[in-house]
Amino acid sequence: MGISMSEKQKDSGFENPSEKEMLSLIDRNALPKHVAIIMDGNGRWAEHRRLPRIAGHRKGMESVRKTVTLCRELGIKVLTLYAFSKENWGRPKNEVNALMRLLEVYLQKEIATMMKNNIRFTIIGDTELLPHRIQQRLQSVIKKTANNTGLILNIALSYGGRAEILNAVKKLFQDISAGRFSIEGIDEVTFERYLNTAGIPEPDLIIRTSGEMRISNFLLWQSAYSELYFTETLWPDFKRKAMLAALIEYQKRERRFGLIKNKDRSDYGL
Ligand code: FPP
After folding, report:
1. What is the pTM for the complete model shown?
2. 3-7, 77-81, 93-97 — which is least confidently predicted?
3. What average pLDDT does this structure show over 37-47?
4. Does ligand 1 have an atom closer than 6 angstroms to the CB of 33?
5. pLDDT tens profile 96-128
6. Is the Cβ atom of 160 under 6 angstroms away from ligand 1?
7. Would the CB of 44 count as within 6 Å of ligand 1?
8. Among 42, 86, 127, which is best to mutate for testing ligand 1, by the most ligand atoms less than 8 A from CB?
């Protein structure tokens, strides 16, 4: 009697591969330079367990730590995490306060690990809207880790893509008015220098958890050619194997940047 494909796959562990098997599928030379993640589903994770929403955020912090560790181990250059959007200010005060507290504790606890692991910490967003104490702590961690040369851990806080583009336009306009630039001299490369992400490569891969299929005002300019990966997994359940699955899927995609198959961007001088 023939064995069905799914049974065969089950027998070989194909349906639920081990972390080691997943790692063996990853081409270390073709990893994304920059992975950006919309960490969604903390609230639902907590609701499913009849817990307060903040319990989901707290559990989500474990996923943050695991993801940072894995990216560092793999040698990924930049990891951007969407921790707090501009729209999130509209959430109940106690949830906003609890998220700020989680961030503060994270910075306190992780600074030693960041130094040990050569991680450089950066932020994007309108962070002047954050409580003063948090701003000070953020600046202190940014300064302390500034000379680290390993993974860049970039956290989006009070971030909105449209606001970022608008701020860039305003700053550029000031420079044009002051005669530092001519309108004709402005191109995409110049414009990028006015974004919060100046100096950081654009994200090759954007992951969103929890089954929602939206970009939600995240890295609007920078995501022009990003590969998008959506998973049903809620952020607190997003562990090493979930991240590896995203990377394996990314490596199956063919990135063309609007060009023709098997051509490299450099073939076109890009
Ligand atoms: C989305 O879930 C998640 C957030 C709005 C916050 C994510 C923040 C953390 C995990 C902490 C971040 C801190 C650091 C240092 C990175 P949701 O509440 O929108 O979930 P729901 O859609 O199920 O309600």
Report:
1. 0.91
2. 3-7
3. 98
4. no
5. 999 999 999 999 999 999 999 999 999 999 999
6. no
7. yes
8. 42
